[in-house]
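Exercise 7b. Backbone tokens:
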């Protein structure tokens, strides 16, 4: 085996990468993602028509039973949890780009009166109609 500068630098780089991965696993463990505070906000579309405001919240992979919709003061609040269905002790996570854990999205409502319609959950999207009243 050669012990030149290239071999030494490669060994140092590999050691640094291993240290970085250990630190990453230590500080970003899966069980830390499950917290009482919201960990992420789902994206929304808000579209106004002549008689309603239609809010669509993108929640793929979230069970409809895990979603709560409430009106709080002058906001619509959509909250819930997306769970990671693996056992961290028996799995190695190579990449985790999809947000997991508690989510909450607060949407400021306009000052006029709105009557909420029946929410519809289809294809990973929750659609909430808010009908304008006179």
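Sequence design result:
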């Amino acid at each position: 085996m050669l012990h030149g500068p290239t071999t030494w630098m490669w060994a140092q780089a590999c050691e640094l990468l291993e240290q970085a991965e250990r630190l990453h696993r230590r500080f970003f463990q899966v069980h830390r993602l499950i917290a009482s505070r919201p960990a992420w906000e789902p994206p929304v579309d808000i579209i106004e028509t002549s008689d309603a405001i239609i809010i669509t919240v993108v929640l793929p992979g979230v069970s409809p039973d895990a979603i709560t919709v409430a009106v709080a003061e002058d906001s619509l609040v959509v909250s819930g949890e997306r769970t990671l269905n693996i056992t961290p002790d028996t799995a190695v996570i190579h990449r985790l780009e999809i947000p997991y854990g508690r989510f909450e999205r607060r949407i400021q409502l306009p000052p006029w009166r709105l009557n909420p319609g029946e929410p519809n959950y289809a294809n990973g999207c929750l659609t909430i109609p808010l009908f304008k009243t006179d």
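Instructor comment: Helices lie at 5-27, 30-33. The domain at 36-132 is CATH 2.60.40.790 (Immunoglobulin-like).
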